[in-house]
Write a structure and sequence with these properties.
13% helix
Length: 267
Amino acid sequence: MKKLTQIPVFVLLLIATFYVPAVLIVSGQGMTPTPQPLPHWTYEGAEGPTNWGNLDSRFAVCATGRAQSPINLSKAQMVPLTDIKFDYKASKLNIFNNGHTIQVNYDAGSSITYNEIPYNLVQFHFHHPSEHSIDGQTFALELHLVHSSASGDLAVVAVMIRQGDKDNPDYAGIFNNLPSTQGTPTPTTLTIDASRLLPASKVYDTYTGSLTTPPCSEGVRWLVLTTPIELSQKQIDAFSHLFEDNARPVQPINNRDLLADQSPAKP
Ligand SMILES: [Zn+2]
């Protein structure tokens, strides 16, 4: 997998935020040129997904990239895949509204291991409706758990969320505390356990793609769990009232492998 040499950890922590430039300017010592602020971007209109690549040269790969995300997951090649080994611990609920989504920055100490490479869980966030689709079907929400390896490679675990009959207690701490206005990460007294956010079945599809927000950097290992979990309509509405549409449209798969596990007996 390609290395994401262009994505330092602070960018990862602040993915999809537009106060990154302010942080850079404040921390600048005058010895290095101050980076130009990244442009504002949105999910509709002139600053929307079809124009992201034109907003700034640093966003160019959004338009020119050949390995962009999300995609429609269809006709996956069935091969024996290694399990994703989850080692998630509880974290303080560092929840905030970054203007593009609700994000939770995760305390250090939780990780996945994939193909013998450990990736630390850095943050998770949501999209409404889902960004990936499965055989053309979209879901109410999609959860992205963003991980980074020691060498800066990214792996994102995606969880599809559909409407169910009752409130999901494992998501209640998040969905009862969605910050309605844009702000910075603020620790709450609540805790969250990311292992409780996953479906029981960890069967997944995988491909190499990109960030789904500017700068759309490629080289991201996507691990999409194909078994949806359920939230109540009330929980879904709590998010969609804040973010009616924060999903990038699906991108062409081009010349990429989409792989699915061929062993159906896996739990
Ligand atoms: Zn995302």
